[in-house]
Fold this sequence. Notes:
It is a single chain. With 500 residues, this protein is α/β, with parallel strands linked by helices. Among the domains are: 4-49; 95-309 and 438-492, TIM Barrel (Alpha-Beta Barrel). The chain is built from 19 helices and 18 strands. The chain has helices at 52-59, 115-118, 126-137, 160-170, 182-186, 188-197, 211-217, 223-235, 256-265, 286-292, 296-306, 323-333, 369-387, 393-408, 413-425, 428-435, 454-457, 474-489, 493-498, and strands at residues 4-13, 20-28, 31-38, 42-49, 95-99, 120-121, 146-150, 174-179, 201-205, 241-247, 270-277, 317-318, 347-354, 360-362, 438-444, 462-465, 471-473, 491-492. Strands 5, 7, 8, 9, 10, 11, 12, 13, 14, 15, 16 and 17 form a twelve-stranded mixed sheet that branches. A hairpin with a 5-residue loop joins strand 13 (347-354) and strand 14. The longest helix has 19 residues, at 369-387. The protein is globular and about 65 Å long.
Amino acid sequence: xxxxxxxxxxxxxxxxxxxxxxxxxxxxxxxxxxxxxxxxxxxxxxxxxxxxxxxxxxxxxxxxxxxxxxxxxxxxxxxxxxxxxxxxxxxxxxxxxxxxxxxxxxxxxxxxxxxxxxxxxxxxxxxxxxxxxxxxxxxxxxxxxxxxxxxxxxxxxxxxxxxxxxxxxxxxxxxxxxxxxxxxxxxxxxxxxxxxxxxxxxxxxxxxxxxxxxxxxxxxxxxxxxxxxxxxxxxxxxxxxxxxxxxxxxxxxxxxxxxxxxxxxxxxxxxxxxxxxxxxxxxxxxxxxxxxxxxxxxxxxxxxxxxxxxxxxxxxxxxxxxxxxxxxxxxxxxxxxxxxxxxxxxxxxxxxxxxxxxxxxxxxxxxxxxxxxxxxxxxxxxxxxxxxxxxxxxxxxxxxxxxxxxxxxxxxxxxxxxxxxxxxxxxxxxxxxxxxxxxxxxxxxxxxxxxxxxxxxxxxxxxxxxxxxxxxxxxxxxxxxxxxxxxxxxxxxxxxxxxx
Length: 500
């Protein structure tokens, strides 16, 4: 007998016609399912979160933010159809994305953004890209500061270093490039150009530790290519690599622990591992989807099991758990600070501290994270409340006492200094310094049309900037808007080749 419990109602989309339909989140036999009925195409049911207890924990960290003061569109049909950002979006842009091409030097079976599958080339000009970047920087009250050049494969563009320079010129302070690594592995001079242009980080596609996995996911052997990228970065003294793992159940989820250990051994070059459970596009069968689907909570279970408890389930916190840090800095500095106010189910993360001998331990061993966040949350509220009646030295005294309370909760001298600097300065440089001796292990589960939840889209903080002036949340764009946008701004492959 199945035990069922309605958790909440939400809205989703039909996987067939993509129309918005009501949906329920239901606890059933210890899991959370999303259930919905399309009047035309019938019933759909999909796993939403693999463990109901874990779901309840992460949802306690929901911290809604505020949208931009200058939305580009107004509500008409309702979320997720009015994206632009609209006046009802609940978060600002933490990471802006610009697709610089849909061309690629691979033909991955799982890709949703590839000219090889569409027969058309989408490749904005430098002038268009400058406008798209400026649009992100025009966000108010906080201009977007972090950028990711994506695709397709961005490195097929010879002028990518010039695009990085343009991003610097318009004011971006942190610039990432998505890559499969093929060109960077073969051409260290190209890597040098990207570094000198001001690129901060590679998002390196890295799906596993043997070629059998790459042949299944990418269609060819690629492990040596990935290793050459890491070695080329090491030759340049460049700690710039984020390993990005497309996680597929039954294909590479048995290597989660091994990939983390690989990152620890190469932490002079690797700063983060970002696992991304596979999203399903197109008319995939129920059998294929259920066989390959893995949820965030299942990923966390794999981590605990395969690291033999070094990283435990309770070490992982959802992204919006970090909002109290931003709110404290905002109250302390008296200026707007970007907040990671995404939906709790969008992503989780944990930190390992790595020493020079290659040892590592979770940051939770030296910080009571829950207490740390509670102090900052309470402190932000106290500062805002008492600022109305206190000025100058009394206000400074309150902030100093709060920082002392934070210090008492951190049992590592170097880490204590780094965190206090972050709280006092609230700058990108202070955040970068904090990450120098840490390795972040994250999981971002982007949605497809089966597990799509409008409540998550409303809070998205990762936004595409487009040639038509719109700024669209990640999962909304890839499920609903990408096809139409690329058709409008692309040309047939043959026509593009003639124009080169």
